[in-house]
Amino acid sequence: MKQMLVTTLDRTLPIFIELMGWNEWQEEFVRPDGYHCYHWLQTTGGKGLFECSGKTITLSENQGVLLPPHVPHRYVTLTHPWSTWYITFNGNYAPFIVSSLGLATSTVIQWEPHSPLSSLHKRSRNLALRNLDFNGMDGSAFVYRFLINLKRYGQVDNQRSLSQHNLRLMPLFRFLDENYSDPNLGLTHMADYAGVSPQQLNFLFRTATGMSPYQYLIHLRILKAKEFLINEEKLTIKAIGLLVGFLDTSHFVSSFRKLENIPPGQYRNIHHNHE
Fold it and tell me: Pfam families in the record, alphabetically (predicted)?
């Protein structure tokens, strides 16, 4: 176990590590009032039983649970040994970061054996032993990256992880990057290329990007338009709109303004004036 020296400066960070530990022989813990920080517990070997929020769950290897502060819980060993890694963290922005990432709490989160989460407990031990500043800003960066990876690779209720959805869509992402300029490109073409129904494609995109396929395509076209606006000074606004798949200049300008809050001409002027 490594108790972190949390300084006054550390407490001003958005998020900071309070405690981190490795138990080769995990013993029973009962906390009727919960823990005062966010608490992550994962199995690194064997099995344990975890009780919280009226649920009893089994934690096997490559599985863990994230508890908010003050949630009563209990865990006991199912196999001997039951090995675990845990980390507790807090900070003024900890609740916001956990909720904005949409991380599941008080339930099993699992991941593929080859994902970065599987070796995190080993890397954390090395960092904690070698780096005297690990409890400070480095520790804050570590726990934030951990939560990002939990979002990316974690699976809840046997659903695909975010990384698996992205992998499923990667061929289509490449196709769109090569064909965004085609003004006739639509949902049907995208679904046919991906080999799924339009409804399935919409679900996949919303899960992986938070956008519909059409919204993603518009964002991609505007991204390409920004590159043209900065790098190709001689191209007119109308020409750039056509190059990125807009047949109508007014539609291009309105779409650009909606995403960037300024029209394309002003965007170009701002960047050229900064050179």
Answer: AraC_binding (PF02311), HTH_18 (PF12833)
pLDDT at 252 over 60: yes
Q: Which DSSP string corresponds to 118-152?
A: GGHHHHHHHHHHH-TTTTTHHHHHHHHHHHHHHHH
What tokens does 58 get?
């089994």
The helix or strand, by DSSP H or E, that contains position 164, with its residue range, turns out to be: helix 162-179
Left (φ > 0), alpha (ψ -120 to 50) or beta: where does 17 sit? beta
- Domain locations in the chain? 2-153, 164-273
Is residue 212 within a helix (H) or strand (E), and if so which, with residue range? none
**Superfamily of the domain at 164-273:** Homeodomain-like (1.10.10.60)
User: pLDDT: is 3 or 66 the higher one?
Assistant: 66
Query: How far is residue 179's CA from residue 185's CA, in Å, rounded to a whole number?
Result: 8
Dihedral sign from CA coordinates of 45, 47, 50, 55: positive
Distances (CA, A) of 98 to 41, 86, 93, 104: 15, 17, 9, 9
- Token duo for residue 187: 């949902």
Q: Please enumerate in sequence order all residues whose Cβ is within 8 A of that of 221, keeping only pairs 6 or more positions apart, or say none.
A: 180, 244, 245, 246, 255
CA distance 37 to 124: 19
Do 164-273 and 2-153 fall under one CATH topology? no
CATH architecture, range 2-153: Sandwich (2.60)
pTM (2 d.p.): 0.80
Residue 224 reports pLDDT greater than 90: yes
Q: Decide: 24 and 98 in contact? Cβ < 8 Å.
A: no
User: Which pLDDT value is given to residue 271?
Assistant: 81
Sheet bearing 2-3, strands edge to edge: 2-3, 16-23, 83-90, 38-45, 63-67, 108-110
Query: Would you mind telling me the total number of residues written for the chain in this entry?
Result: 275
